Structure to design on (162 residues):
């Protein structure tokens, strides 16, 4: 509707492109795949993670809110082993990134050092850090969360309703 209200073909195209991108990451959609090189210099792939639930966390070491939740997330995952967490950093400082992740051994880490221009950030339409996206065992999007507390409540409610 916004695209139709626009007088500019460029604006219409931009709106349509955004909507197409948002449709790709709506609940129930197959999550965009992510490939990265791990610490052992081996290619890893989101689709090959075997877990009932995979949680993507978009974060950065320069984000105060991220650094506040990181210890909580690390402990939460330790006590909820059915979850696999892939943290996707928006850092651009390799030394700082590598120092920071040493404290969070229960989580998998990925950083392409491109900040907001990274392909995963663009594919998932991330607009803020931290952002949490939960995927089911088939890598379909369950939900997107703006806070760690919201993420935890979601899974507590699922457990309570079973």
């Amino acid at each position: 509707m916004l695209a139709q209200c626009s007088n500019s073909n460029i604006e219409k195209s931009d709106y349509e492109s955004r909507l197409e991108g948002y449709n790709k990451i709506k609940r129930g959609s197959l999550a965009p795949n992510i490939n990265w090189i791990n610490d052992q210099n081996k290619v890893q792939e989101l689709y090959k993670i075997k877990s009932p639930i995979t949680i993507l966390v978009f974060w950065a070491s320069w984000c105060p809110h991220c650094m506040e939740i990181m210890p909580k997330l690390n402990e939460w995952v330790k006590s909820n082993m059915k979850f696999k967490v892939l943290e996707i950093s928006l850092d651009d400082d390799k030394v700082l990134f590598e120092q920071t992740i040493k404290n969070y051994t229960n989580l998998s880490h990925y950083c392409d050092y491109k900040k907001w221009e990274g392909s995963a950030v663009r594919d998932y339409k991330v607009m803020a850090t931290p952002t949490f996206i939960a995927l089911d065992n088939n890598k379909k999007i369950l939900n997107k969360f703006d806070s760690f507390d919201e993420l935890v409540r979601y899974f507590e409610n699922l457990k309570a309703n079973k």
Notes: The longest strand covers residues 53-59. The two ends are 39 Å apart (CA to CA). The first helix runs from residue 2 to 5.
